[in-house]
Each structure stands twice: as C-alpha cells, then as structure tokens.
Amino acid sequence: MPSTSPGHVSTTPTPFVQLLPGAPTSSLQSLDSFIFRHKRYIAYISGRQLNLLSSPTTLVQALTFNEDLVALAAEPGTGKIAVASKREIWVLEPLTEGWTKVWWEKTLFLVHEDPGDEAHCLSWGNEGEVLIGGSRQLSLFSTLPSSRTSAPEDGDSVEERRTLWSKDVASPVWHAAFSPGANLISTCGRYDRLVKIWRRLSFEEGLFDYTYLPHPGSVTHLEWRPLDENSEERRESGVSGRYEDEPEVLYTLANDGLLRIWRSGGAHDLDILLLYTSVDLGSAIPQSPSLKMKGALHSKAARYTFILPSSRFNAAVASAIGLQAGQLSHSLEHLKEVSSKDPDVIITLDGHGRMSAWGLQSIGHKRRPDTPSGYSKQAFHIAHTEGLPLRVAEGVNARFHAWFEDSRFNILVHSFGGYVQWWRGAVETFFSPSAAGPERLEASAYWSGHLDGPIELLKGSNRTQCLVSCSSDREVATWAPGGHVGLHNRAVCGADGQVLDLTVIPSIGGTDVDAIVLEQSPSDPCKLRVVLRDSRGRELDAKPYDLELGDDSAKWTIYQSEIFPAGATVEQRLVALNSNGRGITFKTTLAQSKNVILGDLMSISLPAPASEDSYVHAAAVLDSSDVEKIGIVCITRAGSVLLYHLQLLENVDPGYPTLMATFESGIENASLMGVSNEFAAIVSSNRKEFAVVNLRDGYIEHWHSAKGHIHHIVLSSDRNGLFAVGYDDSVDILTQGRYGYQDDTPPWVLVKHISIAAIGLTVGVMAWLGDGSLALAAGNGVLVSSNDVPIAEVERDLQEAIRTDSNAGEVMRLSHLSDHLKAPLPVWHPSVLSFIVQHGHWVLATVLISKLSHKLKFWSEGDQLDALLDIPATQFYGPDRPAEGGLLDEGLISDLKLQLEERDLPMVSRKEQQRLKRAVQAIGHCAEHVKSLDKGALRFLFSWRLALLHMDAEPLPNGQHNGVPSKASPAIPEMHWREIAFAYHSTTQQSLLDILTAHYDNKVTWNIARRLGLLAWLCDRQALEQIFEALAQSTYRATSPPDPINASLYFLALHKKPTLIALWRIATWHKEQRATMNFLRRDFTLQEHKTAAKKNAYALMGKKRFDYAAAFFLLAEDPASATSVLASQCEDVMLAIAVGRLHGGDGSPVLRRLLEDRLMPNAMQTGNRWLMSWCHSILLEPDRAADALVAPLQGVRNWQQDAPDTLTLYGQLRKEESEFEYDAVLRAARILRRLGLWLSALELVSGWEFRRPTAGAAQARQPAAEVTTNGIHKDQQQVASMLDGFSDTGTALAHREPPSMLDEFATPQPVRTPSEDANAAREAKAAEMLKKLKAKKEGQPPAQLDEKVKPEPTQFKEPDANSLLDNFGF
After folding, report:
1. Higher pLDDT, 584 or 363
2. Which of 607, 981, 1021, 1274 is the most buried (most CB within 10 A)?
C-alpha cells in the first residue's frame, strides 16, 4: 500500500530558501489551490508524488503512491483532495492538531466499476460527490459517511467506496466538470468539437437530460464560472443547494482562438445552455510577435487565458482602495470605474511578455427584459502591457490558476515544460493603464524537479550555485541560477547506462552548466564511459574505460579541484575513485570559446593494505594550488586511515601513490566516510556514531553519538569547516569551533537543524553549494536550505559566545558563524587567563586583571571593548613582556568579581564569564604565595584552587553544592597527572605541601593524599615518610576502638614493624591479637617464615581482604606482589605507588616493575604523556622523561595528548634537542591556534630555541624510517622503543638535574628482635641529638648534614625568533 502521512510527527517543517519539489505531471489537472481554515494551500502532482505547499518556500507535506498520478481536485471549503492514477482513485482528508498543524491522510479508496476503466479527470460536486471521467465510463462517488454501504473491516486504515452510478461513454473523457450548483455536468473528449452537457433530472439516480455545445475546432479547455461569494440575496434550493436566481456560466476554449461564454436559462427553459458571447483572443493582442509565425499563414497564434470572476475582482479593488490613504491614484480611479460594471475579467497572454485584460459586464446577473440599452455583451478593454516577465516557451502548453489575497494578485503557471511558477503583483499595478510590464509582476517561486523516480545522486559546485542530479530512472538534470527565483532547470536528459556518479562543470560566468557523467554500460558492467554533456543535455564527448575484475560493484565518486588558469584557458582536475582504491583522473579545459574539452583518462591504483586488511572507503583531496597534485584518503576495514600523495607528470605513468601517514580511527568496518581538505568524518558500522579526524595531525577531534541512523555525511570543500550529517528525515549541520578543556565547548558545534519529518519524505542525498547553502534531495525534488543560521535557534551558550554587541543581527551566515567560533579569544576569556598563569607569566596575568578591572569601571553593555584591552600585542609574545604587574589585593579582586556579576562581557558566554570570575578568584588566592612558590608549584596551586571553585559552583541533585556537601567531607579535586608532573619537578614542594595541608586543617586522610597525588609528586624522603606516617595514624584511629589491621600496610611500608607490634600489644580487645603478635615476632629473613607470610596473604585474598593481604606480602619481603594486589584487586594505583616508593625507593626494582608492567603500558595505550614522563622521572630517567613529552604516539589520538603544556615541561627537562622536537613545536602551535590562543602560538614559534644534541646522544638515536604511522617511525611502534638507546639507571641518575633527594636512601635492614629494636631506637635517638648539637655549634642547619645541596633547576629562557615563523605561517 502507498505510504501514508506521518501525521503523528510534531516537528514543524523547516523553511527553505527554495523548493524544487518535483516536476509537475503534464496533465490538465496536475495543479489546484484551495482554502482550508482561512489559509490557502497549493497541491500539484509530480509523477507518483503529491506535493502540498502553503507558501513559495514551505512544503507542508508530500505523499507517495504506487502509480503515476494523472489528476487531482480539491473540494472548496472542506480541504478534501481527490487524486487519481489511471487505476486508483484516493480521497485525502485534512487532519488538524492545534491551530497551525495540518496534514492529509488517505481515508477513502474509490473502486472502478469497470476494472479496465482508466481515470483521466476529476471534479467535486454537491455535498461530497466526486465525478470521475475515464476512458470507458463517467462515474460518480460519494465521500460522505452516510453513503457507506458496509462497515470497514478491522485494521483497514483506508475504506473502499463503490460508485453511486456510472455511465458508459463513447470515447474517453478528458474534460469533466460539475457546475457550481451540481445540477449540470460538462464533458468532452480529447479532440472533440462538441461539449456534452448533462442535466441531472434526479439527485438520487443517474437520470439525465443532454445537450451538445458545438465548436468549429477541438475544445482545449472548459471551465464553470464560480458562484458569487458575496451575494446575500439568494434563495437556496432545498434539493441541490443551487441558487436559482444566479445563472450557470460555462467558459469554453477551442483551437480557433475564441473564448465562448455559455449561460443557462431558467429551470424550465428548453435550452440548457445558450451562447452568450465570444471573445477573440488572437485579436486581443494585435501586435504580438506570435502572430508572425513561420510556415503556414493560416496557423493560429498561441494564446493563454484565465478568467477572474467579478466578485473576487471587485473585492480586491475595494481592498486596494481601502488601503490607499488620501487621494486615489490614477490607477485606482481607473479600477474603480471598471469595478462599477461588475465585470468578469479575462486575462490574455501571448507567452512573449504581452498581456491584455478585458471585461465582460455583469455576466453573472439575471437580466430583466427592460435592461437599459447601454448594457453590452461585448468585452471591454481594461489594460494592456508589454515586457511582462511572465513568459511561456514557444510550443509548450501551460495552464493558469489565479486568485486574490486582499489587494495582492497571485498567478500560478503550470508549464508542461516541467515547472510551476508563482507570480505576485499588486492589483493597482497589474491592472494599471500605464505601469511598465516588469513592474506588474514579480516571481515568488519556481517549482520543478524530477518526474520519474526519487533522486539518487546530487552534486554541487564548490564555487557556484550550480547543481546536477540524477534520479533512479537515469534521468539527469542540471540546475543553475537564472530567471527570477534561484535555481532553474537547465536541461533534462536520459543516460544510456547506469549512472555511477556525476559532477557539475559551471561556466566562468556561472549561467551555463555542463555535466560530467560516469556511466556503466548496460550490457557489460566492466565497461565505463566518462560522458561530457552541455547545458542542453547533449553529449559533447565521451571517453571509455575498462574496469578491473571486482570493481564492477564498487561505489564510485567523482571529485573535482578548483579552476586553474592556464594561459588563454582554464583547467580543472577531476578524479573518479571507487571504494576499492582504484579509479581514473583527467582534466577538463575551458577555452575562450566556452567549449569544454575532456582530457585523456589516466588510471590510479592504490597499493594493497598490509596483511589481510582491505579498503572500505576511499576519497580524493585535490590540491588548491597545483592541478597535478592529488591526495587520497582511504580507510581500511580495521579502522586505519591512510593518506596517499600522487604527483602527476605529463606523459608519465603515475604508478602507485606514496604513503604519507597512517592514523588510527578506532572505527572498524566504517559505513560512511566524508572528506574535506583538512578533516575526515567517519561513521561507525552501526551508523549510530561518527568521529571527526584531523588529517594533518591524526587527532580524533570529535566523537558524537547520533540520535538516529546516519545515512549521509557531506563535508564542505572550502575551509569554512562545515559538514552535514543526514538522518532519515533530518539533517544536522556542524561547524568547526575551538578546542577547549571544558566539556561544554566541543570542537565541533551543532549550529543548524533541518527537519522534514512532518513532510513525509526522507533525505535521499545532500550536496553543498558554493555560497554555503545545502541542497537536500527528497523524493522527486530538491530542497535548498539557506546559508543563514537563526541565532535564536542555536544553543544559549553559543548565542552568548558569538555575541559581539547588543545590536547583533537575528541571523548569521554559516561562514561568518564558523569564523566567529574559530576567531582568537579575547584576553578576558578564562582560557587565556588560565593559560597565561599556568605557563608562568604571572606578571602578565596581574596586568590583565588590573586592566580589565579598570576598563569595566567605564564600560557598559553595547560599548566596544578591545580584544587586547589596549595592551600592546608584543607584551604577550615579544621582548616587551611587562616586568612588573599591578598589586592584586583583596579589594581589586572583589571589585572585579562584582563587575563580572553585574555585566555581560562580549565574546564570552555566561558560563565562560562564571569561569572567568572563578579564575580571578584563584589568581587572587595564588597571589599570596607567589614569592614562596616556583612556577611548577604555582601551577599546581592554581589548578587545585580553580578546581575547588568549580566544584563549589556545581549544584548537586539534592540542592547542595559540590564544593562542600557536608562538614565531614571537604571538597577534594582529583588532580591530573599533568599537575602532578609539574609539581614533582618543583623546588618548593614543602611550601606547596604546607599550603595544601593547611587548607584541610592539617588532617591528611588517604582520600586527600590520593586525589591530590601527594605521594606521587613529593620528592623529599622525609616529607614522604611524614605524610605516610600521618596517614597510618589517621587510618588507625578511623575506627573506634582503633584497629591495628587498618594501619598494618602503612607501617610495614615504612619498615616500622616495631611500631605495629606496639599497636597490637595494646589492642587487647582484638580477637586476632595473640595470633598476630606471635606471628609478627618471627624472623622473616628466614625462608620458612616468608612462606608462612605469603600463605596468610593468599588466604586473606581469598577472603577479599586485599589491603591486609598486601601487608603480609610486605612481611614476606615480596613488595612486588603487594603493589600488584593494591593496583589490581584494590584498584588503588596511587597507594601501590606510595608503597613502592616508601618500601623500595625511587628507581627500585619493585617500583620499576609496577610502573613498567602496569602504569607505563596504560599510559602508552591512552597516550598519557604526563604519566609516562612522570614514570621515567620517578625511575630516575630524565632523558626519557623529556622524550616522552614530545615523542609520537600510536593508536587513537586526541589533541589533549599533545597539549602545548607538554613543551613547557619538556623545555625544563631537556638536555639536548630531541629528534621529535621540531614536529612537536609546530603541532603545539597548531593546537594553540585551535584553542583560540593565537598570540601564545606566535610566542611559541617565535621564541622557541632548539638545542643541538651532543655527539653521544646523536649516535644513540636510531635512524628514522621513511614511512610513518601517526608520525611514528615503523621501528618505533613498540612500547619499549621509546626507551631504547638511553643509559642505565645509574648513569641517568648521574645526569639528573636537580639531583634526587633519595640518593642516600639505603636498603632496609632485616627485621630484628624487640630488644634489639629498642636498643637501636635509643642509639638512633642519641646519634640524632649529637648531630643537632654539632650542627648548632657549626652554625649549619641540621637538615642539611646528610643532604646534598640542591641546585636551582634549569630555567626556560625566552629565545630569539627563528625560522619556525615561516613554517607556521605568521
């Protein structure tokens, strides 16, 4: 059964800038208009599709049927529509929801009495009657519920109806129409010269009286005059509803060029209709060029006419006079005089721009015998004009439908050439005796499209608005701007074989358009042809091409480059590529004669991918500066994205393209792939997700879970960064934005949603136009969405972020919106301020805050605010960086917070402004500690304080704030490994530790230590032990009474078994006291006691007491198993690190095993450079720690892994230049630009100083391979390869800067007896007292007796500018 309307869908259709819903069917009843609920609708049929529109750019609904439709008719007032194919007749009824939503559904199916009868025409009669004129019968149906003969079957959504009566006809009926009173029926055959009039003798039975109206030639049109809508004095017939006092008037038009008017007499007159008068349409326009026709002199000139009833014309004139203020114009005076004669107006056109309007006086009035002698039946002249923009092609039939809307005049022109035009004009102007022709009408709509089958292929030009499309029936159409409204159909032609793909070749001026069509031979699927067709659809040239075996079923796509000048001609490169990675390339040359020349074909073939993998999609990226360069992007079944480069040389076989890079997408068996010059969008196999890949750096920039199945994805070929994602009945347009560390600022932003859900069609294919508009193919037609974005429809945060002033427009171009989202950030943006602080430019941050506070005192919303706050740009990146900043006292911070709460800053959203306020608060907090902390510690403190403020600002579901949900659980932000790595290399760790612990009232719990990473970044052994011992004591006292079991792991990791034994000694209440005391007194240097401890550990693991099991592993001198249990079963990596560091020390085998077996593989897999660098630092491998920050990564990557912060720490750690440093600097600069930090990017590339590696280091590095994967050389793709060529731990320790605080840490001694422990404790205490006395005597602090002097770390110096500026593009 044909599809029914999606009436339950509540989504309103999106308004489009132009509709091309489909080419109208070339039949006499293809178009109709009607009013329903005080709104006019237009319906026309296109092949098997019925289109319903309410305005030039609003498609209300489209319904599809099983067969090609031939006729439709709408019932006035009720909104019912009868639509017919040759075999099927359907009745559609309107359904409503609310005041605005209307849709139509099929409710009745009218069954022919004669199965062989074919419907040709339709007409609505009295009270729901439908008249069907067919090839064999004239049939009448009733659509009223009272005429139902049987109850509808359960489950049937459409009820069937039988005929009330049917009459056999001698010849097929092509014209059939009820009179307004429904008591007369006029019928006529296709070439008949007689019009048959049926007068109904009974409304219950099919009884008729007949008469015939003779004509000298074939009748081409007949039409009944509608009743006077404004007549009040009527006497209604109780049987038929007809008004007896108003005669029926029939207009007939024959091929002799005469319009005949027939009138009925009284109900008892012998003659049913009498000829009233006639109008010669040929002589109505005497100077028309159509009169001078070639060939036979007796040929009649083509004339087009339509009639306006007097009631509607008079109402329009009255409305125009009522709108005129003051004195009436000459045109209105003329219309007022014409209207006084109550005329029916006849509009005659010749199709060449000439129009003549004539009036028939009081034709609908019933005249008495004493009618004044001044009354005339002859037509009188109203207006004449030349140069009317309404034209009809010579030899093409056209039908017209006209109506008035107040004082506006509307004309619908259905041209049998395959389009519908909608013209509008003012009544005063159109009927003016003196107005110029072009001023009388203006085009409002041009509706066309395909006629047979849905559109399957659609391609647009990347520099013009030209389109080329192809339907399922191999009908190729070209579209180009022209005429009066948007795109116009230039040519429609049929292809010889199956069309695999096509593209458009616009002319230099953009008015003509040629098409390149890739056709597959219908007889041999391995033979292709590249066909060049001109703007008229003619085949100009064709080149054959033979496919390889296996390519006959592959999907093909044609790609085209920009136009390149080549002397007196211009050239364009085209590539046709299939999904298997094979294809052809050729050039087109446009000469001065505007003839396109098709070049020779050249084969392209990609090398087979590695192992058993295969290509699933391939796309070409053509160089915008060189016509001979081709880039090819392909994705394998395993998800690898391969980038190839091909340089073409004249008369030289191109061979295999060169593999440039390989990226991992993480998407296997990709279903779709769209490619632009910079990005690739890849859709997952289930079509529910897609990823955006940066083709330059290999980042997965955006990962999106779709709301439905993705069927299309199209990227714009320009650099606007736009791509469209097509679903069943909607399209999302995303644009490229900035990178951001916050989750609410994705790098790709949804800016426009296009929905056709309520229309009843699905999106077939999409194409971008040169001006940024998006064309959607749906059904037989093309819907063009504008390149404007209503600001009110985008997300609130995005509206606020792009707000530049209070007078921002209501719409914004897509390209302008994309530019706004990618523009540099203002210096008051929180990301700019945070970046400046985190990279150690504290003075500049204070200057910015002071300047912002000063500016806001004299600024109000709507005023201009300089993006740099009038600070010279050189202070951000040059040698003029300020040496001193303002004083950030509490008053300044409070004033700025108040200003930010009262005013909305431009170019930031409200969320970003709240983040700015919290960043200012965090800077104010750090200002108190600037002199006591270095850059690494300040960065950690700022990030911690900012995270605290963010947590406090986020409300919880219970209404509390995330910062302090209760007094018992203070807010503890979990610090990133990035901050931990910076803090580890800080020289002011103790001061930072004091600040952090003071915030938590000097009560450090394990949760605090773990989330802040204290035991990961503290380097001082004594500080580590103090923290861990404090944790042991707090854990011990966490229960009441205190339980030694909770503290066992901590004290054993600190090698303080005597303290643990002492705790067990006083735990008399504990049931395990005696057994544990006896066990702890054993000598665990003996193998049998170690074995006993391990057995206990395994037993405890069986009871899921993993923390206690790890303690027994420590008793057994098996710290590796202890850390493994903590990291795996306890899932507490930070506790495992703490135990490994305290039990064995940094660089110990235990810690190395933990890091190399667990943390480092995970860091390599996830691309966590910070964790990898920290691991090498804690293992006393500074060279590898520096290299880990810049070395290429493998696997799926994102930009956060290469964040510019890595270079800050790398510059602090490096001893010599890494082989990856150059690429890392450029990569970081590109990321900074995507972050909106353009000045920071300029600072990086202009000030970075490279260090030449030493000879030994240069020899230690391995040579690079030619082919890279994610920028990684082939011989470096194993995890261990990042660490090859470096010295051992001892050598690395010797070169570490600054030296480790744990160099003097000795290996723990074997466990001794309690008495020995007591003696050792007394001796250690005495020795410590002696050291203190000696230090006091010598004037040296005791803490420095056994420590090496820690030198100042190597500081990053501001370097001079170098050649990186050229490479980056500044």
Report:
1. 584
2. 981
